[in-house]
Amino acid sequence: MIVGRVVDENRVLIWNAEDAYKLRKDHRIVGNYVGALPCKPRQDVWLGLPLELMPEETTLLLEQGVLRLHEAQRPPLPNIHSTEEGVVEKKLKMSTDDHATVDRVVRWSFPQTPQEELHYKVFRDLWTKGYYLTAGLKYGGDYLVYPGDPFLVHSHYVAIVKDSSEVFSTQQLILAGRVTTKVKKNVLLCSQNTSNGELVYITVQWTGIT
Q1: Assuming Cys at both sites, which of 60, 89, 93, 110 could form a disulfide with 55, CB separation 3.0 to 4.6 Å?
Q2: Residue 199 forms beta bridges with which residues?
Q3: Among the CATH numbers 3.40.1170.20, 1.10.10.10, 3.40.1190.20, 3.90.180.10, which is that of 1-76+103-110?
Q4: CATH, domain 111-210, list 3.40.1350.10, 3.20.80.10, 3.40.220.10, 1.20.140.10
């Protein structure tokens, strides 16, 4: 069972390297590395552990029985004092209570709103179809959809999730099409049929005018 640490109620971090590898290899869960590399801490091109999971990834793993959430334990504050030689030491103040700290299991509550439910339904459906998904904010969407591991292939679609009652103007459609075409991707509009609850996908490819 993989253990995720919950920080600030809605952020889930994976600190174990083997667990992060297993999520990617066995479950097609990519996440996002947010930690600095020990060998090169002053750059942000290549990042390392911990691995942060999207809320959709967390809920999916919980449903699959793969993940267990625990509350992140904050380390005790250092007790700074001077020695007889005048050298400053830092010692962690460890009391008997610190050793008896309970690793509490956290209850997860995503999705809550109708919008979150639609996003999760789309995420789970695309994942079930065999795709890899990552956050798509970089290209103005909700998810980037990959046919294989993102380390090996580029994403084919920028998924934009819209409720059937939302207005998606022509200008927004043109902007999305031009942006995705610039990076050699297609727009994937995702919504839900209000009559039967089935998901509806529309692929938009920008061809331009010649």
Answers
A1: 110
A2: 192
A3: 3.40.1170.20
A4: 3.40.1350.10
Reading the block at residue 38, the tokens are 């020990």
- Report how far residue 11's alpha carbon sits from residue 76's, in angstroms, rounded to the nearest whole number: 21
151-175 pLDDT tens trace: 999 999 999 999 999 988 889 988 8
In sequence order, which ranges of the chain are alpha helices (DSSP H)? 17-27, 55-63, 96-99, 114-128, 170-182
Q: Where are the domains of the chain?
A: 1-76+103-110, 111-210
Is residue 17 helix, strand or coil? helix
Greater confidence, 153 or 90?
A: 153
Terminal alpha carbon distance of the chain: 56
Which structure tokens are listed for 160?
A: 């934009």
Q: Are 29 and 60 in contact (CB under 8 A)?
A: yes
Tokens of 193: 């049929």
Contacts 24+ apart (CB under 8 A), 121-130: 121/192, 121/199, 122/159, 122/161, 122/190, 122/199, 123/56, 123/57, 123/60, 124/56, 124/60, 125/199, 126/159, 127/28, 127/60, 130/28
Distance (Å, whole) CA 5 – CA 71: 6
Q: Model confidence over 38-60: pLDDT tens digits? A: 899 899 889 999 999 999 999 99
Q: Residue 13's CB: how many other CB atoms inside 10 A?
A: 17
